[in-house]
Predict the structure of DUF1918 domain-containing protein.
Amino acid sequence: MNATVGDWLLVHNAHVGEHSREGEIVEVRGSDGGPPYLVRWTDDGHESLVYPGPDAEIRHG
């Protein structure tokens, strides 16, 4: 998984009734665009360091 600043991280929730989350990648801390990513979540503006799992995808631009 590779990303650049300004890409979007979408984390799909596998639990019924729970919503997916999306956030803007504001910093890439891994080498060659790899994780971890500092993400600003759209639902509450909170920033967190994320190591995306298999339920996540990157949307570029």
The chain is about 0% helix and 40% strand. The radius of gyration is 11 Å. The mean pLDDT is 93. The longest strand covers residues 21-28.
